[in-house]
Amino acid sequence: MNMVNLTINGFKVSVPEGTSILDAAKKVNVHIPTLCYLDLHDIKMVNRTASCRVCVVEVEGRRNLAPACATEVTEGMVVKTDTLRAIKARRTMVELLLSDHPTDCLVCEKNTQCQLQKLAADLGVRKIRYKGKMSTYPKDSSSESIYRNLDKCIMCRRCETMCNEVQTCNVYSAVDRGFETVVSPAFGLPMIDTQCTFCGQCVAVCPTAALTQISHVAKVWEALSDPDKFVIVQTAPAIRVALGEKFGMEPGTIVTGKMVAALRRLGFDKVFDTDFAADVTILEEAHEFIDRLQNGGRLPILTSCCPSWVKFIEHQFPDLLDIPSTCKSPHIMFGTIAKTYLADKMGIDPEKIVVVSVMPCLAKKYEVVRPELQHEGKKNVDLVITTRELADMLLEAGIDFASLPDEDFDNPLGESTGASVIFGTTGGVIEAALRTAYEWLTNETLEDVEFHSVRGLDGLKEATVNINGEEIRIGVAHGLGNARKLLESIQKGESRYHAIEIMACPGGCIDGGGQPYHFGNLEIVKKRMEAIYTEDRNKKIRKSHENPEVLKMYKEYIGEVGGEKAHELLHTHYTKREKI
Amino acid sequence: MVKYRMDLLVCGGTGCQASGSSEVVETFKKEIEKEGLENEIQVITTGCFGFCEKGPIVKISPDNVFYVEVTPEKAVRIVKEHIIKGRVVEDYLYKEPETKEVLHEQNEMPFYKKQLRIALRNCGFIDPENIYEYIAVDGYQALGKVLTEMTPEKVIEEIKRSGLRGRGGGGFPTGVKWEMTRKSKSNQKYVICNADEGDPGAFMDRSILEGDPHSVLEAMAICGYCIGADKGYIYIRAEYPLAIQRLRIAINQAYEFGLLGKNILGTGFNFDIDLKYGAGAFICGEETALINSIEGGRGEPTVKPPFPAQKGLWKQPTNINNVETFANICPILLKGADWFSSIGTEKSKGTKVFALAGKVNNVGLVEVPMGLTLREIIYELGGGIKGDKKFKAVQTGGPSGGCIPAQNLDTPIDYDTLTQIGSMMGSGGMIVMDEDDCMVNIAKFYLEFSCEESCGRCTACRVGNTRMLEILNEITEGKGTMEHLDELKELGQIIKDSSLCGLGQTSPNPVLSTMNFFWDEYVAHVKDKNCPAGVCTALLKYFILPDKCVGCTACAKVCPTNAISGEVRKTHIIDQEKCIKCGACMATCRFNAITRR
Amino acid sequence: MAGIKSLDELKALRDKHRESVLGRDTGDSENKIRITVGMATCGIASGARETINAIIDEVAKEHLMNVVVVQSGCLGYCYAEPTVEVRFPGKEAVLYGNIDAKRGRELVQRHIKNGEIQKDWIIEKTFNNI
User: Fold this and answer.
1) A89 touches chain B (CB under 8 A)
2) Could you tell me which of B215, B248, B47, B220 has the C-alpha nearest to residue B140?
3) Would residue A305 show up in a list of annotated catalytic residues for this protein?
4) Pairing mode, if any, of strands C94-96 and C84-87?
5) Which of C3, C14, C53 sits opposite B258 (nearest CB)?
6) Labelling A447: which of A182, A295, A356, B184 has CA 20 to 30 A away?
7) Which of A70, A79, A425 is nearest to A240 (CA)?
8) Across-strand partners of A301?
9) How remote is the C-alpha of A350 from its chain's centroid?
């Protein structure tokens, strides 16, 4: 690799050809502030629109200032980041942005987490010299998931890059010109009428509160304070490895016990685990897979846990709707089980039960209102809050999270296996399914339950497992752009896989749109992933079909796996949707 | 082949068509047929003559007589007198406004005397819809020469030696650009002709495409040969229907004659050209935005480098030149780099086409050697200021340029001198202003244009220009402060320094240059709340002249705010507090007793 | 039109069409031979139209690039119509009378091409232009 020598603020540095000034400056510990720039190179996304102009620096011999994020170094370059000219320009850019930005920071959803706010503080902006017209747009709360307040949009275009390049959903693009320029779906459509999958990755990368979630917190408080309601909560596997971050803990800290304790203190009548339903999902899905494999059904089978991914295939590949597993997603299964089996068992009127899901995900908010996922006209899951919303509730309730004792989930829907925990990360669902399918197909005990080839952050992963002498080929995709590639290969008949796992969010649920913001620090995501696998290893039971409470439920209530009742309660169907 | 003894060259440019040249053509044809002369006299619709002020233009050849402002009625008389009887109709000739002298020939007219037409060489000379005429004037000879006698390197060397610089605004050396694209390694490269002309008042590219489309096609093919491209696109705004039509005809003819397509002139060289239509966004004239637009994306610029020469259309090396630049290529290759570089100034060679507009007598398109002074263009070619008013400034370079005051009238024009005096060449718009123009208002006009045409991508341009415009609005409304002026200067400089593309990097120029040269006028607006040119309505005050007022009370009766008082037959007076400056009193007064200042 | 196959073909095509546009080039009109045919009523009545067309045809046939053929109004020699004036650059004009189509062609051959002034056809100038 060719090295390039340059000077930054007087420090000599040598970096590989193609390096940006911004990255070269890091080598000599020179911090250049950025705003629109976002580098998620582990998932191959870089937002380098160079639109905010905050990172401008002086380059000797250049007529104007250069954006450090988008300017490659050249041999002998002399860069100055701290001259009055650069500092003034930088500060003016922030002032200009603020002059067209609501200053309701104190009551803003992103208060203390806003990157524009932080930048203004870092640069010591104490006064906004420029005044004038402000952008005002209708607020979009049409969907159940994403709230758009474009008054706060600073045109960084991260959402666009994420949506179009990583997720290939192409919902967003910049429209109009001049001061009126804004990022919007085509024809200014409300989000609910678009092909948006509500993965929420745009929300995850938005530096301000232009894109946030539709909050269910108020409704949860209401339900909790209603004495007539029996409020139960379920938590997705990815919550326990991320929630701690909101309370100053190291990324990757496992806080399962504290989380359960905290939820009890909030006043939930029962604290259960979505993992229970994940084990159920594995039973149903493995059964479906074996059925298709042995009876000449259509392969590959695709996992269906991710509602965002389901909506994606409905819009983008309506001719492939017979491929995904018909299993409901785990938290919907849980809701159904809670309002049937559990209600039955505990002798509670299902009408009185309020099921709250704590999810790392925004699409789950939309999923619960899908008409085919209602049971007898009632929602299976009533309310969905994200990891971030849960943290907000705990703060509001004054719960000192860090010093809580560890507590256990309630029974019976709190029992889970290591297989269900790994649902929280890319590759996890298929690994869990393999653990069960292998044993069912071979009648042998699987000694080493870990399938390392499906783990990690590679966008497309594959594995081959020898089952009864047959090579079973597994594919894994995370990020909808990668999913699109896989589906296109299926469409063209090129795919050789027997089973495929797809998760919409890069990295899987651990990096879901409802998780604590990491703003591009993928090390945090990697630590969450490690924690998930640690949690799996710590479990005594690591195969779904060995979950005693699940088996008991089948015996007492559902009957056979894949049987009639199972289909009634645990399976669903898909609808063709338009591309728009 | 019929040999005509006389050609009637009627201008068919958009300007002359708008003033009725199509009807003139029809009348000529009808009258000539009536006289049974259709086999002797030919009526040809040509491209733009440039003298739009006096359109429709009709030139009679070989007599070399130049008629101006021809109407169908005049056409009838021209046929009866000139064509049949050989008597020139003196009444319809151009009259020199100052000497009142009647001028027969085009070459005698001051408007044409100092012109040197290279890019416009065939405009007004040939029928743009007839490829035989283009071939007759050495059309496609340069392409033939290049393909059979020259290596790409040699051609590039020749273009470099000629000193030709980009005519679209930036002034980048064309040969160097071609060389950069040639050196980029790729199996697929592209040539793009930037015909997205957008500066207010500029129409040289349109005129070239309307009047001489083949010259651009030929030059694009030559460029393709040099850089190693076999595909070209002309990005043209859909608002140029006539240019599009003529280009389509020309492209079809060129294919038919084997001058485009496969194996051109039997040399094995292939080159295709397609048209791509723009929707009229000014920013799409910026080359990276143009590429985005062709690719079907939003028309917005991206960061350079990488330059299009490295990574352009569909990420392939792409050479983009403007129409006028291409129009210069063939003459250079036929007449030689030495010939071309003998014209112009030290660093700016050849000629430049300017669109002369505003308060000059002769509005139109002129092509002059680089190095002519502004005074020569405005006072000789342009015939001076309309209505004998006083010259105040000339705006060059459109929204990216600046205003040049009287003290710089003798500056020889080239890329570098214009930049030195705070303006720029741009695409060649030249708008002349007189004493009635308010420079603050002019700056506001251009900034408004930039604000509307900003793509909105970067903060500096999207928000910064808007804030500058708002300050200018305050100033013209009488709410300006001296702090505002400081703010304008600082913000303007930062926007220039920090914007992503050429639009933002130059959009403050009209403001900064007028502040530089007409500072007093800004101060008058801010401190005295007075617009010296009498343009900014909010700053005007109405007064009644005591010596003229007869006390008829008419003004008081029409005043909507009862701001005028006074007894019958006595001088009236306007209460400035109540006056809303509607002007009703002034319009009503029959004694010219009300004044505004 | 079949495609042009070579540069030579292109050059031939150019040469074929060159004359049709050449007359328009007024850039160096002083350096061209100018043939003026009187085309007033009297001239036309005596056959000036046939004369001018014959001259143009002859000029074209001979590819005489430096010749401009124009018409003018009455020259005042009605007795000698059609009248034709030949002016070489920088030289005194020569005025001919009674030039019919046949003589017109001969004039092109003899005077224009070979430089032989046709003394017999000259009419005396009876006045001078001021």
Assistant:
1) yes
2) B215
3) yes
4) antiparallel
5) C3
6) A295
7) A425
8) A499
9) 30
pLDDT tens for each residue of A287-309: 999 999 999 899 899 999 999 99
B552: which 2 tokens?
């008829």
pLDDT at C65 over 80: no
Is residue A577 in a domain?
no
Tell me, yes or no, whether B533 lies in a domain.
no
pLDDT tens per residue across span B454-508: 999 999 999 999 999 999 999 999 999 999 999 999 999 999 999 999 999 999 9
Predicted confidence (pLDDT) per residue in C87-99, tens digit: 888 888 888 888 8
- Shortest CA gap A407–chain B (Å): 51
Same-domain pairing of A206 and A255? no
Alpha helices in A418-499 (DSSP H): 418-421, 428-442, 480-491
Lowest-confidence segment of B380-384, C44-48, C111-115 by average pLDDT: C44-48
Residues of B with Cβ-Cβ distance to A34 under 8 angstroms: none
- Same domain, residue pair B412 and B455: no
Q: Is A364 a catalytic residue?
A: yes
Q: Between B and C, how many CB-CB pairs are < 8 A?
A: 108
Residue with tokens 């998930």: A532
Q: Which domain holds residue A189?
A: 136-213
Q: Domain check: are A311 and A424 in the same one?
A: yes
Residues of C in contact with B331 (CB under 8 A): none
CATH classification of the domain holding A144? 3.30.70.20
What domain range includes position B519?
Answer: 439-526
> Which residues of chain C does B9 touch, with a Cβ-Cβ cutoff of 8 Å?
24
Contact A381, A328 (CB under 8 A): no
Q: Would residue A250 show up in a list of annotated catalytic residues for this protein?
A: no
Q: Note whether A260 and A193 are same-domain residues.
A: no
Tell me which amino acid residue B101 is: E
Tell the residue number behind the tokens 């104190």, with chain if given.
A106
- How many domains is chain B partitioned into structurally? 5
The strand pairing partners of C37, in sequence order, are C71, C84
Looking at 3.40.50.1370, 3.40.30.10, 2.40.128.280, 3.40.640.10, the CATH number of the domain C30-121 comes to 3.40.30.10
Task: Measure B508 CA to nearest chain C CA, in Å.
Answer: 43
Predicted pLDDT of residue C1: 59
